């Protein structure tokens, strides 16, 4: 659903600011409470005036269509206030959720509904398979002329060659397993094993059962896999914890062994997937570090919004070069840091004028502007009205409402 694979963003994250903002105070307008439980809604909607969303029970996402029609998702945190004309829907992350929605107007507004043609929805994070039992596991060292006449059984079996070479025959077809390679035998597959020549071979055998749709993994049947470093480490961890279990009976060692085996099977299933190379080349640690850094910078800006914050201040405080900061903001905020700081200040100014009824000169002073004329130019460039015109429009609206 998201562009790329990232952790969930919250409505309090800076990335949400292009669609709205969060607030702590409840709505002064009529509130509609509703219950959601479906993961793929029938439609999205947009409202011509701002809308607030608050989760009362459970956890929920607000899914928003960006201007290009691509969905972005945010976990609703605090009270999320959406800008007018933003197509959105709400989907529960938990089994269900209770939402309070408030349209921020007592006057006339329009609501547009959009068919969910893209099948925007939430795919729950649940296991598609799980290992139910590990029946047996053993590490074998076999010498020259070793020959196993073969068997078939109802359970699954993995053979991992540590050193040497092992020839296995499955349903009449031979495969050679070299050092640090493995093979998965499916249930009821008749298989033989032997060693060619005078060399010995050491290998690990794991016999187990798992709950999985066999048709989903047909692509790994009758294939030899050369282990990646990650797979090799998992085999070593499996052997290590099997030894700990047998020697010291450490609590939850069995659970760890099953976890290692499940992770190994997942890596084998992903081995030939189209995104495998991309998956290996990605750097999730770097991506999450960047998200955390962006969030910390955003907190710093919000906490110091009444100060004359400069790009140099951010560079000094977070020990980051100016060029790196520019790249970070362009990538995550789609704007340079100076513009972002200005946007936050202008949004805060709008709130001060709207809710605190402060004089324009005091608003400018509180936000760190030394010149009211410079503040007024920035405000008008942002919203199309000068601060005075904006305050007057609010006064006229309130007077007409009375």
UniProtKB/TrEMBL annotation:
Keywords, sorted A to Z: DNA-binding, Transcription, Transcription regulation
Keyword DNA-binding: yes
Pfam family, one: AraC_binding
SUPFAM superfamilies: Homeodomain-like, Regulatory protein AraC
Superkingdom as given in the UniProt entry: Bacteria
GO MF terms, alphabetically ordered: DNA-binding transcription factor activity; sequence-specific DNA binding
Name of the protein in question: Transcriptional regulator, AraC family
């Amino acid at each position: 659903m998201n562009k790329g694979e990232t952790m969930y963003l919250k409505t309090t994250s800076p990335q949400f600011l292009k669609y709205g903002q969060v607030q702590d105070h409840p709505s002064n307008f009529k509130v509609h409470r509703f219950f959601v439980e479906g993961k793929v809604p029938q439609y999205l909607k947009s409202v011509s005036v701002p809308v607030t969303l608050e989760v009362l029970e459970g956890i929920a996402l607000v899914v928003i269509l960006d201007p290009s029609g691509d969905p972005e998702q945010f976990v609703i945190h605090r009270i999320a206030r959406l800008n007018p004309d933003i197509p959105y829907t709400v989907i529960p992350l938990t089994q269900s959720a209770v939402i309070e929605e408030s349209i921020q107007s007592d006057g006339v507004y329009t609501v547009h509904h959009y068919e969910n043609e893209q099948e925007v929805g939430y795919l729950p994070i649940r296991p598609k398979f799980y290992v139910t039992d590990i029946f047996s596991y053993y590490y074998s060292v076999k010498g020259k002329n070793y020959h196993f006449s073969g068997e078939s059984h109802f359970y699954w079996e993995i053979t991992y060659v540590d050193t040497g070479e092992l020839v296995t025959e499955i349903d009449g077809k031979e495969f050679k397993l070299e050092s640090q390679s493995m093979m998965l035998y499916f249930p009821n597959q008749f298989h033989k094993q032997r060693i060619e020549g005078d060399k010995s071979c050491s290998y690990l055998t794991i016999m187990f059962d798992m709950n999985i749709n066999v048709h989903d993994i047909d692509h790994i049947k009758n294939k030899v896999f050369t282990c990646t470093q990650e797979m090799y480490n998992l085999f070593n961890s499996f052997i290590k914890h099997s030894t700990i279990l047998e020697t010291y009976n450490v609590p939850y060692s069995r659970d760890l062994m099953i976890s290692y085996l499940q992770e190994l099977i997942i890596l084998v299933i992903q081995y030939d997937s189209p995104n495998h190379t991309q998956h290996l080349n990605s750097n999730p640690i770097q991506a999450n570090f960047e998200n955390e850094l962006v969030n910390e910078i955003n907190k710093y800006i919000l906490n110091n919004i009444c100060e004359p914050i400069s790009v140099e201040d951010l560079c000094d405080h977070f020990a980051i070069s100016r060029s790196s900061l520019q790249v970070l903001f362009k990538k995550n905020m789609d704007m340079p840091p100076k513009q972002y700081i200005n946007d936050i200040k202008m949004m805060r100014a709008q709130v001060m004028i709207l809710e605190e009824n402060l004089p324009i000169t005091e608003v400018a002073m509180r936000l760190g502007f030394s010149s009211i004329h410079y503040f007024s130019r920035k405000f008008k460039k942002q919203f199309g009205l000068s601060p005075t015109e904006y305050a007057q429009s609010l006064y006229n609206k309130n007077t007409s409402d009375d």
